[in-house]
Design brief:
Elements: E1 4-10, H1 12-15, H2 36-44, E2 48-54, H3 72-83, E3 88-92, H4 106-121, E4 134-138, H5 162-180, E5 183-185, H6 203-220
Parallel strand pairs: 1-2, 1-3, 3-4, 4-5
Helix pairs in contact: 2-6, 3-4, 4-5
Length: 224
């Protein structure tokens, strides 16, 4: 059996950001073995190759005044080519689009992700380098309400309204998957963010997410 390549394209929860009480503290990252991508690799075994492409603050298609480039749309084409041939792209984006800086509603965020889906589906970087890779759209865990009180250095509540947006985005992502003939998984019923910062995943959440994706990916490829 030919090894299948799975590209995991996401934000800080794909990167493995360790939850912090004080956001001014130095950022730290879970080890490869602790991140859901690394756990997923172990669960799937040698017949699969997991490519990690997580970046803190990555958006769907928005420019962000934080280096390096956080716009998921601009980086995606070269990323696909770099890791080709690819059998499946797992899209775990949209959380950063909910920040008040961008003034986006859930439908705007869905449309932002749709642009990434279009890029993938128009690409020739699938398993045979002729057709496009399969796509799995993944929802975000629902943040805890207390995160809406967070303020940045300018006193702006940059996560205000995020809980409602996250909930409203679930059926919109499901409809996008149906419309674009992608696979879909809602992880929000099983995965919760850490109670430390209310947004990022702790070790238990990484494990649960990996187990959910292991089952889903095996079903996509009809593997035991």
């Amino acid at each position: 059996m030919t090894q299948k390549t799975i590209l995991c394209y996401g934000d800080s929860n794909t990167w493995g950001y360790v939850p912090l009480r004080d956001h001014a503290q130095l950022k730290s990252r879970y080890s490869r073995e602790q991140r859901w991508t690394g756990i997923l690799q172990d669960l799937l075994g040698s017949e699969y190759y997991i490519v990690e492409e997580g970046l803190n603050s990555r958006t769907t298609n928005l420019d962000y005044a934080v280096p390096p480039d956080r716009n998921g749309k601009t980086y995606l084409p070269s990323c696909l080519y770099s890791h080709a041939p690819i059998d499946l792209v797992v899209l775990g984006l949209g959380g950063n689009d909910m920040k008040t800086y961008f003034n986006r509603n859930p439908l705007d965020i869905k449309n932002g992700l749709a642009e990434l889906v279009d890029i993938i589906q128009k690409s020739p970087y699938g398993s045979d380098m002729r057709q496009a890779p399969k796509i799995l759209i993944m929802t975000q865990a629902i943040p805890y309400p207390f995160v809406e009180e967070y303020t940045d250095e300018n006193g702006i509540r940059f996560l205000e309204g995020i809980v409602a947006k996250a909930r409203e985005l679930i059926p919109l992502y499901a409809s996008l998957a149906e419309e674009k003939q992608c696979h879909f998984i809602d992880v929000s019923q099983d995965v919760s963010p850490s109670k430390i910062d209310g947004v990022h995943y702790d070790l238990n959440a990484h494990r649960i997410l990996a187990e959910l994706l292991n089952t889903k990916i095996r079903a996509i490829f009809q593997a035991p």
